[in-house]
Amino acid sequence: MKGGPRYHVKPRRHRQGRTDYRKRLKLLKSKKIRLVVRKSIKHTRVQFVKYDETGDRVLVQAFTKDLVKNYGWGYSTATTPAAYLTGLLAGKKAKDNNISDVILDIGRNKPTKGSKLFAVLKGVLDAGVNCPHDPDMLPSLDRITGKHLKPELKSTVTDIKNKILGG
Fold first, then answer.
1. DSSP labels for 60-92?
2. CA atoms of 82 and 42, how far apart (whole Å)
3. Residue 3: band (very low, low, confident or very high) from pLDDT cuts 50, 70, 90
4. What distance in Å separates the CA atoms of residue 143 and residue 138, rounded to the nearest whole number?
């Protein structure tokens, strides 16, 4: 049993393993807008979040469901190309809202070379938003265009990319 006069109960989100407060504090000290990337088994969510004392404010967001609903994406939303296009869409929206410099926040996910998290970052960078990063961590062009999944996926990714950037 834990207890006693010097026992300190950790914050709820720390106990649940959802928030690393030391890492969050480092990101907040930069005073930059955070590019928050969260992934689930089927979807990826991209948000541009600004710190506020009363609570974080989401300035812009994009979700992989937006690709299906607005751009005719007919493949799985759990793939690297879907994550890249979601990042591109979020980056375009951020650019339209005059957001130019951000810092990447991947939360409790481990940074793995070529992962979906970095595919999102590549999409944001291609939209014209600056973010400090290691170029070696970004996925290859073959992974982004979906060549490893289906050969016809490359043309679909290119078409949707042109729709996002052009329209």
1. EEEEHHHHHHHH---S-TTSHHHHHHHHHHHHH
2. 10
3. confident
4. 10
Which CATH entry fits the domain spanning 19-166: 3.90.1720.10, 3.40.50.300, 3.30.420.100, 3.30.70.270? 3.30.420.100
Tell me the HSE value of 96 on the side-chain side, using a 13 A CA sphere.
Answer: 13
Cα 107 to the center of its chain, rounded Å: 10
The dihedral over CA atoms of 19, 144, 98, 20, expressed in degrees to the nearest 10, equals: 10
pLDDT tens digits, 71-83: 999 999 999 999 9
CB 64 within 8 A of CB 86: yes
Residue 78 CB burial class (10 angstroms; 0-12, 13-18, ≥19): middle
**Phi and psi torsions of 59, nearest 5°:** -85, -45
Q: Spell out where the chain has E strands.
A: 33-39, 44-50, 57-63, 102-105
Is 1's pLDDT higher than 80? no
Token pair for 160: 């949707």
Count of alpha carbons within 13 Å of 44, Cβ hemisphere only?
A: 31
